[in-house]
Design goal:
Distance between the termini: 45 Å
Order of helices and strands: EEEHEEH
Number of domains: 1
Largest sheet: 5 strands, antiparallel
Strand content: 25-35%
Strand order of the largest sheet: 3-2-1-4-5
Low-confidence stretches: none
Length: about 100
């Protein structure tokens, strides 16, 4: 099963994906895709070097598929991570404070 590598930025906690050039990108469509276990493990080892350097945290493999609508994570948790929250975020203000 094809996989991509995901993590969070250390400074802001944003979801990022490991790109083919070793850079972290914010779009799952630009992530490097690993088609076999050996390649995925090698990519994960390289990505974890950035975790050791405190650039990202929580580096892990994500099962994914490419379809008519583009690349998608197979689990709900990772789909939400890839495409954002399921609700709109509204910062507290006098008009929407509870």
């Amino acid at each position: 099963m094809p996989q991509v590598i995901s993590a969070n930025t250390l400074a802001r906690g944003l979801v990022v994906f490991y790109g083919a050039d070793g850079a972290w990108v914010d779009d799952i469509a630009r992530a490097a895709v690993y088609h076999d276990k050996a390649a995925a493990e090698a990519g994960l080892a390289a990505a974890k070097l950035d975790e050791a350097r405190a650039r990202v945290i929580d580096v892990f493999l994500v099962d994914q598929k490419d379809g008519a609508e583009g690349r998608a994570a197979l689990t709900l948790r990772n789909a939400i991570r890839a495409y954002g929250p399921t609700i709109d975020y509204l910062p507290a203000s006098p008009t929407n404070a509870a």
